[in-house]
Each structure stands twice: as C-alpha cells, then as structure tokens.
Write a structure and sequence with these properties.
The chain is an all-alpha fold. Helices cover 79% and strands 0% of the residues. It has helices at 10-46, 55-70, 73-79, 89-111, 118-144, 155-162, 168-172, 177-190, 197-205, 207-233, 237-298. The radius of gyration is 26 Å and the shape is elongated.
Length: 299
C-alpha cells in the first residue's frame, strides 16, 4: 500500500470542468444561430419578394432601427441611478443580446444586401461593425464575469481554489520535486505583472498552449517517478495507475487554475479596450442611421 498522499477534490474539479465545457457549447450554438440568420436573410433577399423601398422593406428597416435604438436601454439600466430597480441586469443583458441579433438581421433584410447610397452604405457598415463588436464583447464579458449576473470573478477566490497562496503543490507532489518546481515556475511567469494590449493578448492566446506543453512534460516526469517508486515498494499495477491518475489530475487542475488567474487580468484589460472602441462606433451608428432616415424621407 502506498504512503503517498495526493488529496484532490475530483468531484469538485469535474463539476467545474463540466460548467466550463457548457459555456463553449452555448457559444457555438449562438454563433451557429447567427450564421443561420445571416444565411436566411440572404436567401430571403434573393427571392425578390420585396424591395428595400416598398412597404415591406420600409417597415423591416423601421423595425430593425427601433430594435437597434432600444439597445441603448441596457447601458441606461446599468449606469442611470433611478433605473437600478427596473429588474435584474441579467434579464436586461439577455434582452440586449436578443435585440443585438434581431436588429441587424432585420436591417440586412431591409437592405436586401445591396448598397444603393453613400449614407446607407456608411450606416450599414457601422451597424455591421457594432454587431461584430458586440459578439466580441460578449466573448470577453463572459470571461470577465460569472455567467450573466454582472459579478466580476474574484481573483483571490481563484487563487485560493488553485492553492496558489498556500503553496500546496509542493506538499502534494513532494515525491516529484522537479514537477513541483516546473509548476511553480509556470505560476511565477504566468502571473508576472506585464501591462499592455500585446501581453494581454499573449496571455489569452499563447498561455494555454504553454500550459498544455508543461502539462505533458510534467505527466511524463510523474509517470517515470512513480514507476521507480512502484518498483522500489512493490506496488500493484492498480496502485500505480491510481497514484498516477491522481497526480496527473492534480497537475492539470493546478495549471488550469493558474491560467484562469493569469487570464483574468488580461480579459479585463481587453474588455476595457473593447469598450473604448465599441462606444464610438455605436455613436457613429446612431448618427449615420439618423442621417439615412432623414435622407430617405427628405428625398
């Protein structure tokens, strides 16, 4: 019987992994719906059932424009004091997301995918930029906040769950000190303060790749070290597999937690930058849309 102690909350880790795996699935469904809506709008526009200037096309444009205008209700709900009692931010965000999908879809149907005037072209381009920016913003928002509740993920809580503050990795992997050192080196480099857009983007894109490389190397070292210990102590194959599985699972969970902690500040920085770019494009959309409406009715 082995004396190695490898405590690991496997059930908790599995639940956390399941929650994280559901989020990409929901995102894929959303992106699939967006593509289907755009493809459907293009197909309907090819049928020649209406024109952008007739009654059907006109009211499609009005409905889409009103939905885009109602998008402003979400920032008002967040920042204007007397609206703070008007329901939960989560519900407003869902409505904001629905309007952000439905509005552009109706505008595309209204345009029939044709650019007939300069002001209409600028308005459509502004709308598409705002819509694409909204998709990017939602991706960043979900990484900065927990679910749709608007509660920012607590960095200290992630560190506590990862065992970063207590240094538990040294205790749990004391049979393989070189592995523990690799994990702590990865932690130190991943959490090193480094501001700016490029470092933040590097944390988001490249850090998970390095995490997987470190995980593979550590798994190999763990396997070799445990095989040596098993031969010295006469472990059964079942004991060896169990200890290896626990140690590798601990390593993966630890590295994943470190990456989540490191990426949090990166996503916060990217989200702030996104907000700086998104708001001016939204104002540009409002101005160009108003001018387009004026031009349509005036001429």
């Amino acid at each position: 019987m082995t004396t190695l102690a490898l405590p690991l909350p496997i059930t908790t880790a599995k639940r956390a992994k399941a929650r994280r795996s559901r989020r990409p699935s929901r995102d894929l469904v959303l992106y699939g719906v967006l593509m289907l809506l755009v493809a459907g709008a293009w197909y309907v526009s090819r049928l020649g059932l209406y024109k952008s200037g007739d009654n059907v096309g006109y009211w499609l444009g009005v409905a889409g424009g009103v939905m885009m205008l109602l998008l402003l209700s979400y920032p008002l709900r967040k920042h204007v004091r007397f609206t703070h009692r008007w329901g939960k931010v989560k519900s407003w965000f869902v409505v904001h997301m629905v309007l952000g999908i439905g509005g552009p879809t109706l505008i595309l149907l209204h345009s029939t995918f044709h650019l007939r005037s300069l002001n209409g072209t600028v308005a459509l381009a502004s709308m598409l930029i705002v819509a694409a920016s909204g998709v990017v913003g939602r991706f960043l928002y979900l990484h900065v906040h927990q679910g749709l509740h608007g509660e920012q993920t607590n960095l200290a809580e992630l560190q506590r769950k990862a065992g970063l503050a207590e240094g538990e990795v040294k205790l749990r992997l004391r049979f393989a000190p070189e592995v523990a050192k690799s994990l702590l080196d990865f932690e130190a480099q991943a959490l090193a303060e480094d501001g700016g857009f490029v470092p933040a983007l590097r944390r988001v894109v490249l850090l998970p790749m390095r995490q997987r490389a470190v995980c593979r190397a550590c798994s190999q070292d763990i396997t070799e070290r445990l095989r040596t210990i098993a031969a010295e102590r006469g472990w059964t194959p079942q004991t060896l597999r169990r200890c290896r599985r626990q140690a590798v699972s601990l390593t993966r969970s630890y590295l994943l937690s470190v990456v989540r902690v490191a990426q949090l500040s990166a996503y916060v920085r990217l989200f702030a930058l996104w907000h700086m770019l998104h708001v001016p494009f939204l104002y540009l959309l409002i101005v160009t849309a108003c001018f387009h409406v004026f031009a349509v009715h005036a001429y």
